[in-house]
Amino acid sequence: MAQLIDGKLISQQIKDELKEEVAQFKAEGIDICLAVIQVGSDPASSVYVRNKKKACAYIGVESRSYELPEETSEEELIKLVEELNADESVNGILVQLPVPDHIDEDKIIRTISPNKDVDGFHPVSVGRLWIGEKGFLSCTPAGIIQLLKRSNISIEGKECVIIGRSNIVGKPMAALLLRENGTVTVAHSRTKDLKEVAKRADILIVAIGKERFITSEYIKEGAVVIDVGMHRDEANHLCGDVDFADVEPHSSAITPVPGGVGPMTIAMLMNNCVETVRK
Ligand SMILES: Nc1nc(=O)c2c([nH]1)NC[C@@H]1CN(c3ccc(C(=O)N[C@@H](CCC(=O)O)C(=O)O)cc3)C=[N+]21
């Protein structure tokens, strides 16, 4: 039987630890505030934003919401971000992605002050990550490292294969696994013999965005499998990039969807909010 890696439980433990830390900061007169900006009203985005605000309330961080209409111009959004950069009562700024097509996402990410970049998406944060300097870590990959560590799965010396090379997951995941002394391969849509490459993995991280794409044919017996995907299937059930029922019997440990990586993303966002005030 594979070990089920319970992201819901582990994220709860992390939030409880953060809640205590936030209370200590409060006692010293230090409050933390996260500004959350959503442009438009995509229902999936609204769910995530609501979950982020709930997590803020739980650990004792103030969340300030900015719900802007779909037609908001790039200039208006940049102006708001600049105001929040200058506002000393705001510690972190999160612009929910994706933004509408008429707004340049990269330009918005670069406008957020690197000191308030709780998503870890700013080029300064990305650079710090790759050279091993302290900085904000991208939440999903940082959450995956916590899942592994808190499940007593060692990374050092292991063959780690990441499928997917996005700026939000694949690339920062590679940097973090490398930092933990893993041997890292980043595979992607143009990788030849993907099954063979995936089968090398002791730890397989799947972030390809294709519903139940990874079957047991991609798995070395006893591998650890981390599923970053999130889809709604025909039956309206949440599922991941991994065919869980097929893969689980061949893995030694595996994350479910929901209840795996997703809740960890939010816990690590909360960690980054607290990081803004740590000495
Ligand atoms: N600036 C920005 N930062 C983000 O971190 C960001 C973003 N934009 N845009 C969208 C993605 C997606 N994302 C998720 C967060 C939590 C769950 C999560 O909690 N999932 C639950 C299920 C939630 C449900 O029921 O739908 C689970 O997997 O158990 C999923 C996805 C953050 N993102």
Automatic annotation (TrEMBL):
Q: Name one GO biological process term.
A: purine nucleotide biosynthetic process
What gene makes this protein?
folD
Name under which the protein is recorded:
Bifunctional protein FolD
Catalysed reaction(s) here are:
(6R)-5,10-methenyltetrahydrofolate + H2O = (6R)-10-formyltetrahydrofolate + H(+); (6R)-5,10-methylene-5,6,7,8-tetrahydrofolate + NADP(+) = (6R)-5,10-methenyltetrahydrofolate + NADPH
Q: Which InterPro entries match?
A: Aminoacid_DH-like_N_sf, NAD(P)-bd_dom_sf, THF_DH/CycHdrlase, THF_DH/CycHdrlase_cat_dom, THF_DH/CycHdrlase_CS, THF_DH/CycHdrlase_NAD-bd_dom
Keyword entries, A-Z: Amino-acid biosynthesis, Histidine biosynthesis, Hydrolase, Methionine biosynthesis, Multifunctional enzyme, NADP, One-carbon metabolism, Oxidoreductase, Purine biosynthesis
This protein's assembly is summarised as: Homodimer.
Name the GO cellular-component terms. cytosol
Entry keyword annotation includes Methyltransferase? no
Q: Which organism is it from?
A: Mediterraneibacter faecis
Q: Where does NADP(+) bind?
A: 164-166
